[in-house]
Amino acid sequence: MMEKKRTDCPALPPGWKKEEVIRKSGLSAGKSDVYYYSPSGKKFRSKPQLSRYLGNSVDLGCFDFRTGKMMPGKLQKNKQRLRHDLLSLGKGGKPDLNTALPIRQTASIFKQPVTKVTSHPGNKVKTDLQRASEQPRQLFWERRLKGLRSSDITEEVLRTMDLPKGLQSVGPDSSDDTLLSAIASALHMSSAPITGQTSVAAEKNPAIWLNTSQPLCKAFAVTDEHIREQELKVYQARRSLEDALMADGLARAAENTRELLQGKTA
DNA sequence: AGATTCGGCGT
DNA sequence: ACGCCGAATCT
């Protein structure tokens, strides 16, 4: 009997495995079926099935089931939805990441979808121009950023950054993943200093005491040591950039010379 | 009964 | 052409 290979799948949470089985007879001989296995061993044979199970914890919007890789080029192609996404872009051009419907966060082992109500006939349009400038945000909205990965033009997913030791998150999600996104967002969205949650009350009961203009992390201290480490990183990055530019420059010069000798025009 | 496998519908 | 899933077949 042929051994079936279950390989790790880096695009999914740790412990998930992927398997490809080639059809060996029938009209579809030679084609293949792809299966995924959860860390507990449950088998999944389609993207909808996988999506139902993972709920909102992983956005499979750009997950390619056949290859098992994230393909940032692929948005869900729903004509109606595409228009909605364009309209819902913020001023800064941030994409609408809310691809999947929210999932009821209960202890039930069966994920139950939430009914999304988008029209509320009783509502009045806000007339207070003072407050209209700042749009309301969901508490702990940073959790939506969980699992986001940057990728280069070859659509390969880039390694994530490491966070300085000692940073601690506040709120319902303690993953480094969300923490990094929250801090990065805070740095981008405001020029105000980032201090983290300075009140002790916020750590005990963030749902009530959270300072919403600060990221979901505990107050932290930046030491001279931190600064020296960061300066070293910047120095090293500049060095490798310099080397890369130098190598590129030499390559271009060589090519230009070759073309000149062959009589090409620029 | 559960796992495996291919057919075939719908897009 | 392919994703998804029903159901026949296998263990």
TrEMBL record:
GO biological process, one term: negative regulation of transcription by RNA polymerase II
Molecular function GO terms recorded: methyl-CpG binding
Record's subcellular location: Chromosome; Nucleus
SUPFAM superfamilies: DNA-binding domain (SSF54171)
Keywords: Chromosome, DNA-binding, Nucleus, Phosphoprotein, Transcription, Transcription regulation
Entry annotated with the keyword Phosphoprotein: yes
Domain MBD span(s) in chain numbering: 2-70
Superkingdom field: Eukaryota
CDD domains: MeCP2_MBD
Principal place of residence: nucleus
One cellular-component annotation, GO: histone deacetylase complex
Protein name, UniProt field: Methyl-CpG binding domain protein 2
Organism: Sander lucioperca
Taxonomy of the source species: Eukaryota, Metazoa, Chordata, Craniata, Vertebrata
Gene: mbd2
